[in-house]
Amino acid sequence: MPENSERIEIIRARLTALNPIILEIQDESHLHAGHEGAKGGAGHFRVHIVASRFAGLTPVARHRLVYHHLQDLLPYPIHALALDAQAPSPDNAK
């Protein structure tokens, strides 16, 4: 089973296909210790992604696009994914 740092790199590599302006990935598995999915070794992650590809898409469509790139990683090695997917705006520009 890959370590969570390896899983983060896999997620990063997959989501790079969306040409993100911002891509932040956090391992939150430690917050779910004892949870059924955590017992099996699957991880819990939080992703914040800002990409021009999301412009004009509804939040649901943005999530679907992200899940499309990660679908074979769910439910293992990713058990849960908290997702914040946004199009670029003055509020989220670096």
TrEMBL record:
InterPro entries: BolA (IPR002634), BolA-like_sf (IPR036065)
Similarity comment text for this entry: Belongs to the BolA/IbaG family.
PANTHER family found in the cross-reference section: BOLA-LIKE PROTEIN 1, PTHR46230
UniProt protein name: BolA family protein
Taxonomic path: Bacteria, Pseudomonadati, Pseudomonadota, Betaproteobacteria, Burkholderiales
